Amino acid sequence: MKCRGLKKTYKRTGLAAVDDDSEVVAVDGLDLDVAAGECFGLLGPNGAGKTTTVEVLEGLLEPSEGDVTILGRRWAKDETYLRERIGLSLQQTFLPDKLTVVETVRLFRSFFKTGRTVEETIGLVALQEKAKAKYETLSGGQKQRLAVACALVSDPELLFLDEPTTGLDPQSRRMLWDVISKFRNEGGSVVLTTHYMDEAERLCDRVGVVDHGKMIAIGTPKELIASLGGSHIVEVQAEGEALAALLPAELLTLPSIHACKPVLGRMAFTVGELHVALPAILTAYTERKLTVKDLSTHSATLEDVFVHLTGRQLRD
Amino acid sequence: MIDAVKARLGSIWQLSMMRWRLFYREPGTMFWTFGFPMALSIVLGIAFRSQKPEPVVCGVLEGPRAVMIQELLEKSVDVRKPDVLSESASDAQLRTGKVSLVVVPTDPPTYRLDSTRPESRLAKALVDDALQRGLGRKDAFAPHSDEVTAVGSRYIDFLIPGLVGLGLMSSGLWGVGFSLAEMRTRKLLKRFVATPMKRADLLLSFLVVRAFSLIVELPPLLIFARVAFGVRMQGSIVVFALVCLVGALSFSVLGLLLSSRAENPQIVSGLINVVSFPMYLGSGVFFSTGRYPDGIRKVIDVLPLTALVDALREIMNEGTAFSPLVLRALAILVAWGVGSFLLALRLFRWR
Ligand SMILES: Nc1ncnc2c1ncn2[C@@H]1O[C@H](COP(=O)(O)OP(=O)(O)OP(=O)(O)O)[C@@H](O)[C@H]1O
Ligand SMILES: [Mg+2]
Fold this sequence. Notes:
The complex is a heterodimer of chains A (316) and B (351).
Chain A: E1 2-11, H1 16-19, E2 23-33, E3 39-43, H2 50-57, E4 65-69, H3 75-85, E5 86-89, H4 101-110, H5 118-124, H6 140-152, E6 158-162, H7 170-185, E7 189-194, H8 197-203, E8 206-211, E9 214-219, H9 221-226, E10 232-239, H10 248-251, E11 257-263, E12 266-271, H11 274-287, E13 291-299, H12 302-310
Parallel strand pairs in A: 3-7, 3-8, 5-6, 6-7
Antiparallel strand pairs in A: 1-2, 1-4, 8-9, 10-12, 10-13, 11-12
Helix pairs in contact in A: 4-5
Chain B: H1 2-24, H2 27-47, E1 58-61, H3 66-74, E2 83-85, H4 87-96, E3 101-104, E4 110-112, H5 118-134, H6 155-185, H7 188-193, H8 199-229, H9 237-258, H10 265-282, H11 294-301, H12 304-318, H13 324-347
Parallel strand pairs in B: 1-2, 1-3
Antiparallel strand pairs in B: 3-4
The site of magnesium ion (MG) has 5 residues of chain A, from α2.
């Protein structure tokens, strides 16, 4: 799967549109390659353009500019071919309330020429016990699993999942991760969007970080974390007269410190060796007559990559 | 090839089953399709049941001859025993319609009435008759009267085909229009379009289910009307069913059209109300369209519900089959159906 220079703009709606025909740029020139058998994660804050990107790839939205090739074909020419071979779940779908799990899966199965059996699909997402329960009586996690079942019922080559685990408890999330990993291990390709770093790190071979419609970083989770230069993050919150004198440039000269950036009232240091950097940081603060109020350290994650790239937290 | 056809039919079957399950598992639809028309026919059937003719009500203004006139009128079966009223009471009762006429006991008597009111004119004829006879007028002859209350000419006979037509309109507009808009809001249409499902299959399944639900929808009201009020089907049940089918499909497609753009079910409810309310009142469900002026009738006559109700009424009460009126009604319904369908094809939003 391949896309080049993808751009999607929406007309601004509402009263403002009358005297101003400006547009909302949801996706702003995005390039993406996903190899067969790969699991690719799109990571980004609310409104970054993840859903828009995925829906263009799914052939549900027309791109304003750019070019999309899926399984070597294009939507305009081979829609039927592609629809038979991709599975997807939208960020928000409400399946019919009064249909049971079996009835819903059977309905979706009937749309495809080939695919798994209904029982097998329900087994895949472990909903056997709820097979006869109506959609309206399912819990949030069970509804999500049913949505994934509808995506898997055709045994697709390529699976698109838009925020499959948002709002679920840790157990349901792990359960869905297993389903997705299994699908990938059997040779399927996956494109998923998420807000969760741990999800991306666990599941995805490669991750793209999207912000304001642009891809700001792309690579394996390891590569992205390595790009920070250090493997630990130290966050310091301090108080004192000379807070303004705390210049990042000066701090960067301290030993084993690769980067530092103020984030939400704290200073975040990207650090190579904790035992070298930590005393140096504390000395620097004491010299400047700053009282350290709070200090914490953790191993670097994708979250830190995002913070480093944008100066913002991933979730507001 | 055969497999492809099989798969396609399988998909239409599953979609139809979805539609059917959503229909019968929703308690609200049950009430509106079955309970409501029956309740309405009970209420209206009782309110307008055939009764013995009511005697007319009049009053006598006080005066020397008042008691004599009161006694003369008392003898007539057509006039209820009148009260003797004061000047102010008689004015008030006449104005509010408590009495249809006041006899002023002059010699000869004076009748005080508002002749634009039909019941007052009737009262005048009957009171005059009673007084003239009482004071010695001889009739030229004594006529025989031959009383008939024909089944098929009562209000309930008029009402039932109207209610059948009304039910077909509501089920079509709400069942199809509202459901489709709801599916769009729930992003279910979008989810379906993201599969290889043929869009025509989804629409077809709605029509198939509408057609089949007639089998369970029509008999209860017709049987109830027969048992409770003795309303009979004078014409062919097959022709009746055919007209119902064409009407049901025509209204379903109209529902499809109304739902083709709407972002949410509320917008569709509004549209359905706007479209159906004029037909509710204008199309002769509850009273004959003959009461409207000619100019308005020209419009009313080509409305789908008018055509449907007129045809059903003729088949049920007059016992005709494919009369010119029925054929014309079928043509009007088909025209509405085809027109709405073509427009809906252009307008319908799937996402
Ligand atoms: N139909 C639309 N009309 C106008 N603007 C839209 C429309 N859909 C999305 N947008 C805008 O495009 C931008 C990207 O939206 P998108 O839904 O792709 O974000 P997202 O990354 O999926 O966010 P989230 O994490 O909240 O799901 C947002 O600014 C949004 O307001
Ligand atoms: Mg989204």
